[in-house]
Design brief:
alpha+beta, 10 helices
Length: 471
């Protein structure tokens, strides 16, 4: 069962983002001397974030913090001894009064997610006077000038009963540590005068590890960072058959919208069924909900299996197993032609596909193998609890099921080994509306179904995708 990351999401985060300008004069072609100059510049930056001019601006609120000036703050209602949970309540109240949190007024089901206090890192440009007059010097020489913007992104877990001063102390340590890691990555991947900008990524690891941050060089694909990821696996004693540190595995903070517009994991808002001596076996990780009429594609009446396949592909993409985008209907059809399953005229048609075609496309486009589970009639679905439970325990991937003229996605089962009771967690690709979580869950487009959901006399095939072993 998936429980590790969900349990962690009940905690609170402080996240500070901003940019620091790295400006360095490289007046030598000697690599060692250039590296020393870059290191000195990073040391100056680390000193700079400890100055009184360093400012943290709390997002969606008027709160401003000077962490190195005895944690001076505005407005006066907030002080260094204010608890983080009180700050969060104050921000939420102020945000609603200012109209910044309109979504909080919407009716709907509540999701228990991490609370995030977001801060913006800034530096005061001016100082209180009087100041000495500037002195200008001009030097003419041949040299290389390095100018880069470092994307600072630090996140820490903070207990709600800790004070703002405690939180600021931890944040400043985290920023300093991140600058050290950025320096190491920049020097490690430096080739001549070519410098790669380091980028931080956050990863939510299984408990009790929690949230960790890794820094990767921009422009270097994941395929060339395997050695670095192996070291991270060894450091945190993680198995090497599952990717944890690819960029696609980066943690998505709950206060950030997804840019592609698709809903993620709508099942998380559902109330799970209670069965006598029953257990939950659920999909592990993130997936996107793909359904009829998305992407300006009118597939109403024939594209349900395509959409189920897209949901499965999104799972492999968002778990970091593959880097390619979720395939379109045309790309799915072309893949079936390429493997010899369909004729060339199939591309661009409105013809259905089934679980065997889903299996073939996953193998062709993603290199993913699948198991096919045959069910001679829908009345036998109630007896498939053990097979499905084992699948979600060992693989954790969404399951495509096709029968009659319909296809669905199974995201999990609630199953009692002693009584045989079973409920199926179904994601229905036949939905044609907008990405409205409330409608989708309340109307049953994503919901728990009993054995009677299946056509009792129809023949069903289930495609159970298998996880590749990758790091």
């Amino acid at each position: 069962m998936i429980s590790d990351s969900n349990a962690f999401e009940a905690r609170d985060f402080l996240r500070v983002r901003g940019s620091l300008e790295l400006k360095c004069l490289l007046d030598s072609s000697d690599v060692t001397l250039m590296q020393e100059a870059i290191s000195r510049t990073f040391e100056n930056l680390r000193s700079h974030v400890k100055f009184d001019s360093c400012v943290l601006k709390v997002q969606d609120s008027p709160v401003i913090i000077w962490p190195n000036k005895s944690v001076h703050m505005t407005p006066k209602e907030i002080t260094a001894s204010t608890l983080c949970e009180e700050l969060h309540k104050w921000i939420r109240t102020e945000g609603q009064e200012m109209g910044d949190k309109k979504s909080a007024k919407k009716k709907g089901k509540k999701i228990c997610l991490a609370r995030v206090i977001s801060l913006h890192l800034m530096m005061e440009a001016t100082k209180p006077g009087p100041l000495p007059a500037p002195i200008l010097c001009r030097t003419i020489q041949k040299s290389h000038f390095l100018s880069a913007t470092l994307p600072i992104d630090c996140a820490i877990y903070i207990h709600p009963t800790k004070t703002i001063k405690d939180a600021c102390d931890c944040l400043m340590v985290a920023i300093t540590k991140q600058l050290h890691e950025m320096e190491r990555e920049m020097l490690c991947h430096m080739k001549g005068t070519t410098i790669l900008v380091p980028q931080p990524f956050h990863f939510l690891l299984p408990n009790p590890i929690g949230l960790v941050t890794a820094v990767y060089p921009a422009g270097v694909p994941d395929s060339q960072l395997e050695t670095q990821r192996k070291k991270l696996h060894e450091r945190f004693e993680l198995p090497e058959d599952k990717p944890y540190f690819r960029r696609a595995n980066a943690y998505h903070f709950p206060n950030e919208p997804y840019k592609d517009g698709y809903l993620r994991n709508p099942h998380l808002v559902l109330t799970h069924p209670t069965l006598d001596d029953g257990k939950l076996y659920l999909v592990q990780g993130l997936y996107s909900y793909h359904h009829y009429m998305q992407d300006r594609m009118d597939d109403n009446g024939w594209g349900c299996a395509y959409r189920s396949l897209q949901t499965i592909c999104s799972w492999f993409q968002q778990q970091g197993y593959v880097e390619r985008a979720v395939p379109t209907h045309k790309e799915i059809q072309q893949a079936l032609v390429d493997v010899g399953d369909k004729q060339a005229t199939f591309v661009g048609s409105r013809k259905w596909i089934g679980s065997f075609e889903v299996h073939a496309v996953l193998n062709q486009l993603l290199g993913v193998t699948s198991k096919i589970l045959l069910v001679s009639q829908g009345s036998e679905m109630a007896s498939k609890g053990r097979e499905l439970a084992n699948h979600f325990l060992s693989e954790g991937t969404p399951v495509m099921i096709g029968g009659g003229v319909l296809a669905h996605t199974i995201l999990g089962v609630a199953w009692s080994e002693t009584t045989g009771q079973i409920r199926f967690l179904i994601l229905d690709p036949h939905y044609t509306g907008a990405e409205d979580l409330q409608v989708i869950t309340e109307k049953g487009w994503c919901g728990w179904k009993g054995p009677e959901f299946w056509d009792q006399t129809a023949y069903y095939n289930m495609c159970l995708p298998q996880k590749p072993k990758a790091i």
